Amino acid sequence: MTRNFFIILVTLGVVVMCVFLMSRGSDSLSGEVEKKNKRGQGRGDYVRSVETNTNSEIRSKRRSSQVKVKPSPVTTSSGLTYQVLRIGSGEIPGPKDTVKVIYRGWIQGGEEFDRSAEGVPIEVQLNRVILGWQEGIQLMRVGAKYRFTIPPEIAYGERGVGDKILPNSTLVFDVELIGVK
Q1: H or E element: which one contains 102?
Q2: Average model confidence (pLDDT) for the chain?
Q3: Long-range Cβ contact pairs of 5-12 (< 8 A, separation 24 or more)
Q4: How far apart are CA 26 and CA 151, in angstroms?
Q5: How confident is the model at residue 48 (pLDDT cuts 50, 70, 90)?
Q6: Rama region for 46: left / alpha / beta (φ>0; ψ in -120 to 50; rest)
Q7: Which residues contact 77 (CB under 8 A, 6 or more apart)?
């Protein structure tokens, strides 16, 4: 119940953000006279035609489950920043689930420190990984690919790990959710 409510809340937030961003560009909302371009289209007409074209492209790509999006990054209350790179349509993992992922991780502004083998998913139990992964992966559906920017507080903090992840490092991961057990 709580997980479904959270999913609905996140989805609603994304929809509201998209509507807000689309309406920001419209002069007609501010009461100004809408200017016409050379074809006689006002900005609203142009936006509607772009929306129609974009929606039909998404519908056709959705059939092949390869919809790629890059909306603005979203930051949660914990400090996790995520960006949807590809929308998924499968199951959403829970906090104790084991997930199959393909990933790549690097220090923000720096070098790569870890990755799964090319195209080969690894299995991880969500309650045994850093908090940033626990939170972020539970936002995803199977088939999705996200980019997480994880601050030290929900990564490895002051202790760091080995010689590549120094104390208080911000980590960036591209994670593709392949499956949930």
Answers
A1: strand 98-107
A2: 77
A3: 7/92, 10/139
A4: 36
A5: very low
A6: alpha
A7: none
Cβ within 8 Å of residue 63, ≥6 positions away: none
**Amino acid, single-letter form, for residue 30:** S
111: amino acid identity, one letter: E
Paired residues of 114 in beta bridges: 105
Structure token digits, residue 14: 């994304």
pLDDT in tens, 106-161: 999 889 999 999 889 999 999 999 999 999 999 999 999 999 999 999 999 999 99
**CB 69: neighbour CB atoms within 10 A?**
12
Tokens of 127: 């309650």
Q: What are the residue ranges of helices labelled H in the chain?
A: 2-24, 43-63, 131-137
Res 119: pLDDT: 86
Paired tokens of 62? 């959705």
In this structure, the dihedral spanned by the alpha carbons of residues 139, 81, 148 and 164, taken in order and rounded to 10 degrees, is -140
Tokens encoding 135: 């939170």
Closest CA to 10 of 144, 178, 156: 144
